[in-house]
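Summary for the steering committee. The consortium agreed at its last meeting that each partner would contribute one worked example illustrating the joint modelling workflow. Our contribution is presented below. We chose a case with several input lines so that the handling of multiple components could be demonstrated. No manual editing was applied between input and output; the record is shown as generated.
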Amino acid sequence: MSQLINIQPLEPERGNIRASSPEQPSCASSACGKASAPESLDPDVWEKVKNHPCYSEDAHQYFARMHVAVAPACNIQCHYCNRKYDCANESRPGVVSERMTPEQAVRKVVTVANEVSQLSVLGIAGPGDACYDWAKTKETFEQVAKVIPDIKFCLSTNGLALADCIDDITRMNIDHVTLTINMVDPEVGAKIYPWIFFNNKRWTGIEASQILHERQMLGLEMLKKRGILAKVNSVMIPGVNDEHLLEVNRVVKEKGAFLHNVMPLISDPAHGTHFGLTGQRGPTNQELMNLQNRLSDGTKLMRHCRQCRADAIGLLGEDRGQEFTMDKIPEEVAYNPANRDSYRDIVAQERGEHLEQKQSADKKLAVLEEKPTILVAVASKQGGRINQHFGHAQEFQIYEASPDGVKLIGHRKIPPYCTGGNGEDEVLDRIISALDGVQAVLCARIGDCPREKLEKAGIKVSDAYAHDWIESGISAWYSACFSEEKRQIA
Amino acid sequence: MSYKIVVENCTACGACEFECPNSAISMKGDEFIINADKCTECEGQFDSPQCADVCPMPDTCIPA
Ligand code: SF4
Ligand code: SF4
Ligand code: SF4
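What follows is the complete predicted structure of the assembly.
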C-alpha cells in the first residue's frame, strides 16, 4: 500500500470537509494536476494539505513553514508551562521566541519569502494563545495576505477562545487550525490546568477543566461545520493522561478532527514549570511509540511533528530562525514571487517521481515472505532522499520496514556527532541510546570510528544508498540484507 | 485605591492591558504600568480585579 501522505480524512462524514470550498487555487501558482492526490483522499482536502508541511507527511519533505511570535497573551495556565518561555503546547518547552509587533512580522515574512523558496505556510502559535490574543493574530494575517496572497495560514490554540474568533477565521480563509486537547475528562484536566480565565473570571479545579473541555469540543464542532481542517495535539504526560489519550483519540475523531498528534511532555526542572519542579517525567521514546501504535488504528497520527518553536523558520526538522532575527530584517522590503513560483514547479516533478518509487519500493518488499518488521533510521536533509552525513544529522527519521512496505513512523532528535573535537565518545553514546530499538542506520556518509561503535552496539550501518529516495534505499537495503542471510544458510 | 504591577515578575504578555475595563494599563518603554488615576480596582464592574485574575505570574498585579 502506498503511503504517499500520512493523512486521511477520518472515516465518517468525509464529504463534509469544506464541500463548499468556494476558492479553487489558480493553476498558475499551485502544482495543479501534476502531483495527483492519493486515491484515498478527497481532492478538496488534498488541495488544502498538499503543500502544508505539518499536515502532509509528503509535503514536510519539500515545503517550509514559518512561525511569527506575535501573540504573547494567554488565557489559561498549563502545568508544563511557565510564562518565561513559549507556549509548550505547540513549541518545544524551554525556548524563548523573538516577539514582534504585527508590522514587524509582515516585514519578516516578506523577507523570508524572498529568500526561502520552500515557504508555503505562515503559522501563529503564540508564544501565548493565538485566539486569545486575537487582535494581533488577525492584524498579522490580514497584512500578510495583502502582500503574499497565495501563502497559507494556520494557527494553534488551546481552544478556550476559538469560538469567539471562528467567524474571522472563516472569513480570512484560514483553513488549518491546531487545537491542543490533553483530556476529555475534567478530573484528568484538573491535574494539568490549575486555572483558566473565562468570562471575566478566574476559574480553578475541576470547574476550570469542565469549561475548557466544553469550549474545546464546541470549537472542534464549529471547525468541522465550517469545513476547516482541525488537527489535535496532545501532550503525553506519563501517569496523568497517557492511558486517557486513547479516549481523547476516540472523542476527537468522532468530532471530526483530521489528524491527531501525540507529543511527549518535555520536562526539566530548569524550565521552572510546575511539572518540571515536581519531578513529573516525560515519556521515553519507546513509551511514546507504543502509545502512537495503539492509537494509529483510529485517527491518522502525525508522526513527523517536530514541536517547533514559535518563531521557527524552514523545513520541519531545521530552524533557520537565527538567520532572520529582527535586526537582520530591512526597514522596507518588497515581495518578489519568482523564487517561490519556480520552486513549486520543481517540486511538482520531484513528487511524481517520488510517488512512483515509493510504490515500486513497496512492491519489492511485498514479495519477501515472513520477514521481520524492523526500524531503520535515516539521515536526510530534505527532499525525501538519504542525503545527509551521519555526523551532521541533528535528527533521524525513523522508518518501519517490513514485507508490508516502508513507512515513516517518527523521528528522533540527536546531538550532532561532528561538533569538532572533544566529547565525541559521549555524544556517540547518546546517539546510540536515542536509537533504542532501531536496527539500522542509512546515511550519505559516515566515518569509520562511529561506524564501528554503532556496529558493536548491534546497529547495522550503510552509506551504500547515498542520495537514493528514502523508500527505495530502505527497501534495497532490506532485500539485500535478507538475500544475504539466505545465501549464508544455503 | 489602585492596583500596581510588580515589574520584576511581569512577563510583558499584555493580557492585563487587554482585560482592564478602564484602559488603566499601558506600556511605558518596555514595562507595563497601571495608571492609578484610571484604576478603580474594577469595583462595580467585575467581582475581582481583572488584571490580577488573568495575570499568569503570582503576586504581580497587587494592591498599590
Ligand atoms: S510544531 Fe508540529 S505542527 Fe507546529 S509547525 Fe512544527 S511540526 Fe508543524
Ligand atoms: S484592577 Fe481593574 S481597573 Fe485596575 S488596573 Fe486592574 S483591571 Fe484595570
Ligand atoms: S498580565 Fe501579568 S505578566 Fe502579563 S503583562 Fe500584565 S502584569 Fe505582566
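The longest strand of chain A covers residues 405-413. The mean pLDDT of chain A is 77.
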